[in-house]
Amino acid sequence: xxxxxxxxxxxxxxxxxxxxxxxxxxxxxxxxxxxxxxxxxxxxxxxxxxxxxxxxxxxxxxxxxxxxxxxxxxxxxxxxxxx
Length: 83
Prior knowledge:
Elements: E1 10-12, E2 21-23, H1 30-38, H2 43-49, H3 55-70
Helix pairs in contact: 1-3
């Protein structure tokens, strides 16, 4: 793993969790970690609950989420002109 690209910590494997984004090939989805963070769990608690996790893994989850949101595109709704 190169520290120059934290997203190398985020992997995919069709045999694990249906191909969802996971952390370093383990059976822990990025989605789950983000959910813990959103629920207010702090970094230390998450790292204690998953001893194999590293702080850099949590940063990679945040970066992954940021890039996913940045790639979102919306189309303006077509509104019929008022009569």
